[in-house]
Amino acid sequence: MKSSDYKKMRLAIAPMMDWTDRHCRFFHRQLTRRALLYTEMVVADAIIQGARERLLGFDAAEHPVALQLGGSDPGKLAEAAAVGEAFGYDEINLNVGCPSDRVQSGTFGACLMKTPVLVADCVAAMKARVKIPVTVKCRIGVDEQDPEPALDDLADGVFAAGADALWVHARKAWLEGLSPKENRDIPPLDYGRVYRLKVRKPNEFIGINGGIQSLDAVREHLCHADGAMLGRVAYHTPGILAGVDAMFYGEPPAAFDYAALIDVMAAYAARHIEKGGRLGHVTRHMVGLFHGLAGARRYRQILSTDATRPGAGPEVLKTAFAAVDLSGTAAEAA
């Protein structure tokens, strides 16, 4: 993906630790051909020193897919970005939003909101090493910061350094006193702050993230920002992704073929099992697929029990699917 193409990335699925692994991304790609997918955050040091195929390997079907990096050393981030580009990723994204104790101890993630000059240096170093887009995902501020100057300072720095986009989670992060889970829910959302940034930066790509629960909400946000990022709603109720391409990318609306999806995922799971993996590695991401439909509870039960047993094969997924009733308007709206 060229930097000039980034404006087409109207919808993305957020990087989520322990969730958006390669199996999740392959599954999500079967539901939407066009949305931008993100890896979990991968620490730059791990890429430089660790097992790169295990950390970075992905299926070609996942494109467009971005690699999110964690780190605060410009040189190491540049080296890790170059490795990611060589692996075939379409974008490198710097995490300036995660508030966990682990990233704080490594002086990266959300605590980088306090050092916008360093973030800009990291972006500049990565831009100098790779040809693919380099982007940043941040919060509107941390702790006692005033979100007005805090976000402006970060945005000014990263765009001056050449960043191709800034994705903003429209909440503060509290580095002490709140857990990562609480930081996703307790600090109030301030979408207006992100909208004001877009007014101030009309020629830069500003994407919005945080608490977006539906495709209709995405459409509203796109009146004020260049892109919108779905998080947990895409994971827990992935069926909503089947409507993305028609709503945001001009694809002709069509009834989604869930039987074909299950066949693709069963074949994918079979390949994973042949390589020594387990069915549950794949199906754990599919539990919420038929949310709201008749038979969805039985489907979830089968995937949560039978699919996790040692030796379980892809036929379990087809058995679970057989429990779902796709008739009626609910199936058409999924």
TrEMBL record:
First-level EC class: oxidoreductase
Pfam families: Dus
Reaction(s) the record says it catalyses: 5,6-dihydrouridine(20a) in tRNA + NADP(+) = uridine(20a) in tRNA + NADPH + H(+); 5,6-dihydrouridine(20) in tRNA + NADP(+) = uridine(20) in tRNA + NADPH + H(+); 5,6-dihydrouridine(20a) in tRNA + NAD(+) = uridine(20a) in tRNA + NADH + H(+); 5,6-dihydrouridine(20) in tRNA + NAD(+) = uridine(20) in tRNA + NADH + H(+)
Chain residues that bind FMN: P15, M16, M17, Q68, K137, H169, N209, G210, G211, G231, R232
Location of the active site: C98
Assigned keywords, A-Z: Flavoprotein, FMN, NADP, Oxidoreductase, RNA-binding, tRNA processing, tRNA-binding
Single GO MF annotation: tRNA-dihydrouridine20 synthase activity
Cofactor: FMN
Keyword tRNA-binding on entry: yes
The EC number(s) this enzyme carries: 1.3.1.91
Family according to the record: Belongs to the Dus family. DusA subfamily. Belongs to the dus family.
Role played: Catalyzes the synthesis of 5,6-dihydrouridine (D), a modified base found in the D-loop of most tRNAs, via the reduction of the C5-C6 double bond in target uridines. Specifically modifies U20 and U20a in tRNAs.
NCBIfam families per the UniProt record, alphabetical: PRK11815.1, yjbN
Protein name: tRNA-dihydrouridine(20/20a) synthase
Organism of this sequence: Mesorhizobium abyssinicae
The encoding gene: dusA
